[in-house]
Amino acid sequence: MKEMVLVTGGAGYIGTHTTVELVNAGYDVVIVDNLSNAEMAAVEGVRKITGVDVPFEKVDCCDKDALNKIFEKYKFNSIIHFAASKAVGESVLKPLLYYRNNITSLLNVLTLMKEHGVRNIVFSSSCTVYGQPKKLPVTEQTPRQPATSPYGNTKQICEDILRDTVSAYPEIFGIALRYFNPIGAHPSALIGELPKGVPGNLVPFITQTAAGLRDHLSIFGNDYDTPDGTAIRDYIDVVDLAKAHVVAVGRMINGKSLKNYEFFNIGTGNGVSVMELVNAFQKVNGVKVPYEIVGRRAGDIEKIWADTSYANKELGWKAERSLEDTLASAWAWEKKLRGIK
Ligand code: UD1
Q1: Which position among 130, 151, 235, 261 bears the catalytic label?
Q2: Which of 21, 147, 303, 310 is in Cβ range 3.0-4.6 Å of 232 for a Cys bridge?
């Protein structure tokens, strides 16, 4: 019998890519999503890529009774919990929404795991928990710093909830994956990032500018203490990131966890500046991205990239796709969406 994995937020950007990799790795998957920031077309994309009619249930994880029915209907022993609100700026304007959605959904998932004897959970965390680290690259031992947004705070609080829960109930195993900046799309161009409204993140803004939907990209600040003055991030391919989830689930299923609660940096280990990213995008895709340098964006950190050696060694996982291939996939996806040849 195949193992089944429940993927909450499975219709979203990282959730769809992870579902594809889980199916490729031989798992059965059930997707739960409230479609608040995702489209059914994304689930259809997953079904098309995998050739599997992956079950989908429209459920909000904040609704415990509705989620309980999923735990009764399907037999799974592992959960990947993506379902959450994720826009940093919006979280500042709507903190109650962010605290309620992100914390209630995790509390419901953990409570139901306990009630139904479900053993394993992978939690979507973020490098945002490190704030602006004093020393780079960041290892898992780098101390977390106070969050700079309600969104970031929910990631810290949720990590703590997970840590304390598995410590009190040692029959539960948890892994938090601290993502750096996920970008790109599936090589099939059947799934990718689908931001609603004006994109807040860099790569969707670049692809929409290249596609002519936006007249130019604003680069937020060129007076940082970095070689070209623009901010530095660790951009990780979304398919590589998806594969890290498959490894994390397998690690718990196969009893390879060193402790009940573990956490890993999921990045490439390479710091890339905004300017370098824009130039690489233009070069690899042969398109122009008009840009303007503007002031810094409030709340942005200057630079961060991951030390991935612990994840590489312990998980036996490594980011493989080059930045160029990832940027080509992001453009292929945007072109497909807009019908550009
Ligand atoms: C933020 C969050 C991260 C979250 C991610 C995805 C923080 C510190 N980071 O990452 O936790 O997972 O969003 O939602 O809270 N930029 C421009 N012009 C633009 C857009 C972005 O110059 O139009 C620059 C930004 O200033 C930044 C870089 O591009 O230096 C990346 O920005 P973005 O894609 O928004 O991600 P982060 O802010 O790094």
Answers
A1: 151
A2: 303
